[in-house]
Each structure stands twice: as structure tokens, then as C-alpha cells.
């Protein structure tokens, strides 16, 4: 629908098929307008904020596909950090997980909730969270993240956050589209007390373009940050 809006954003609506399931997703249509918004400019000045949440990224599709095909939930507790518009959280809920979607931007959480509603799934919740701070709550059986390794300075905080949030037998899945900045994440995760498997992954979504990347599968050892 032309001119469709959500939370005052003009939105783009698309459908994609992942692991045989059709998803309907909306997200802001005009990234330039968000970048030029005085509130974004001021927030960048204060904390180097960038509205990366406002678009679905290729590695989110890879992770959604992996969760739907390889990681059934059976009601287990899951958390996604940096959920953005919520594709991975929605897919995990569809796979049977009780998912808490988290992001550092409140608008991202509202989009994630709306996309869950559009796809007929229910999230366990949606909360603001800063993964640069060690987690001190109840542990999770599954932790999810996609496209959070876009800067080298993120590698250690992401690894340490995951180590702090995982249950003893929990699994974390972190996807990335083969960015050079992500090189070294396996070492950071190992140093944080996690066992690491690197899983190259590719898929062909509805667009027909091949999406390639890597999923880091992480489990706890004994050491901690």
C-alpha cells in the first residue's frame, strides 16, 4: 500500500519464504530520512549511534533459516540481541522457542512486535538491552544474534555477553555475512570460555539472490570473562 506508515515511518512491506515458511515483514522505507533526522544526528554525536536496526540484513535470513531447520524450540527460553525489525525472533518463535527480542532502540522493538503479529506468532517479550554490559539475569537455552560483528570492537563484548547469558547446556548462534571485521570472533569467543563451531551457510530467499555467510555455534566451557 502506497504511503503506509507505522510509528510515523513510511514502511516497506515484503514477503519472503524461508525454510518453506512465508514471512511478511515491514521496515522503514527511507533510511536516508532516518540518518538525516536531527535526533539521529544528535544521538550519533553523543554515543556514535547508527540506526542499523531499521533494515533486515542478509545474515538475519541465514540465521532464521538455520533456526527453522536445525534448532527446534519445544518451548525453550531464547533471547535475540540486536533484533532489529525482528525476523530472527519471529522465525525462532515459529520454530517453537519462547523468545525475548531485545535491541538498544525502542522503535526496533515495536517493529519486532508488529512483525510477530503479522506472522501469527507471539514473542515472550521485547526489551531494551545493551549487550556491551554483562548479563545478570536468568540464563537462556538459546541466544541469537545476526550482524552484530560489524566492528572489531564488538567482538569481545558480544562473546562475553553470550557467555554470561547462556545456560550450562545452552547454545548461541551468531551469524555474519563474512565481514572482515568479524575475523577474530572465534578467538574472542574461545577466550571468553566458549567452544566454537564455524558453520558456513548459504540460502536462496524469494529474491533468487544467493545469501552467504557464516554461523558461529557457541557453547559454554568453564572459563569466563
Could you provide a short overview of the structure?
This protein has 225 residues and is of the alpha/beta class. It is built from 7 helices and 10 strands.
Spell out the blueprint of helices and strands.
Elements (H helix, E strand, L loop, with lengths): L4 E2 L2 E10 L2 E8 L2 H6 L1 H10 L10 H13 L6 E5 L5 H8 L3 E6 L2 H13 L6 E4 L11 E7 L8 H11 E11 L8 H7 L2 E10 L7 E10 L5
Parallel strand pairs: 4-5, 4-7, 5-6, 7-8
Antiparallel strand pairs: 1-2, 2-3, 8-10, 9-10
Helix pairs in contact: 3-4, 6-7
How would you explain this protein's 3D organization?
The protein is of the alpha/beta class and 225 residues long. 30% of the residues lie in helices and 32% in strands. The protein has one domain: 3-Layer(aba) Sandwich (Rossmann fold), CATH 3.40.50.150. α5 links the parallel β5 (98-103) and β6 (125-128). α3 packs parallel to α4. The protein is globular, with a radius of gyration of 17 Å. The model has no long low-confidence stretch (mean pLDDT 93).
Features:
225 residues; alpha/beta; Rossmann fold; three-stranded antiparallel β-sheet; 30% helix
Largest sheet features: 7 strands, mixed
CATH topology: Rossmann fold
Helix content: 25-40%
- The average pLDDT score comes to 93
Pick out the low-confidence regions.
none
* Domain tally: 1
Strand order of the largest sheet: 6-5-4-7-8-10-9
Q: Strand content of the residues, in percent?
A: 25-35%
The CATH class designation is Alpha Beta
Query: Any idea what the radius of gyration is?
Result: 17 Å
Strand-pairing-aware structural class = alpha/beta
CATH architecture: 3-Layer(aba) Sandwich
Give a count of the beta strands, DSSP E runs of length 2 or more: 10
